[in-house]
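Ticket #4471: structure output looks truncated?

Reporter: J.K.
Steps to reproduce: submitted the chain below (272 residues) through the standard prediction queue, then opened the result file.
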Amino acid sequence: MNKLHYAILNHLSPKAGRSIFSARLIELLAFTYKQALCCLFPIFVFLMLATSHYVTIIPRYDFMLITCLGMQIYMYKSGLESKHEVLVILVFHLLGLVMELHKVNVGSWSYPEFAYVKIGNVPLYSGFMYASVASYICQSWTRMKLNMINWPKLPWTILVGSLIYFNFFTNAYVQDIRWFIVPILLFVFRKNWVEFNNNGVVRKMPMLVSFFLIGFFIWLAESIATFLGAWKYTYQHAGWEMVHWQKLSSWALLVIVSVIIVAQLKNIKYGK
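Returned output as attached by the reporter:
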């Protein structure tokens, strides 16, 4: 498998003599291939969601928990994830589970199916939905050799991350302040760029753009997940429909919290 992987990377590496169009196409294919590898765990979660429609031996939420745990063990044992990355993913699993308990309790969405392993009507596997975002970020950091340019100072990232995370809880009781947080985000990350290495070709983009793009694809994935019955919003009980556009901003904000946590833990690890 490793030989095939390196053969693909070699075939997609920059080579002299190619036309501009060919070079750009190869670069796009290399980026797509690496992004697919970074999404290994999220893709696995979706495959298991689809498979769980046909598994009737045990409840599907319990099936999801067992398979997701198995995949995490495999990724660690195979070296796809380090001990440090597994700890990062565990943190996200716990943060996600706490949020799920709150959201289900206030009626934002529900898990209507039976499961043996549930806490407060929330199946334990649900935390892996958030952990899969962390897995993607950690994989991208390694495979794309991410480098944060002009990363904000720690007090600013703590402020932004805390405001976003706690707003997910308080917006059920008081005014949602996400649109008050956005100007702060624009100010804090205005000079921040993310640099990435795409098979020898170094590119960069504004960090704010990457937040939106990742949030968009997660929103799209969430719509597919609800179609597969991972969970249901109240407006989907009468029949499936696409997740509301407002959730795109929620996912973009969650991505920001995720990147902040991973970046700060990386800084601690490397003593920055």
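Triage note (M.O.): checked the attachment and the full token line is present. The mean pLDDT is 86.
Status: closed, working as intended.
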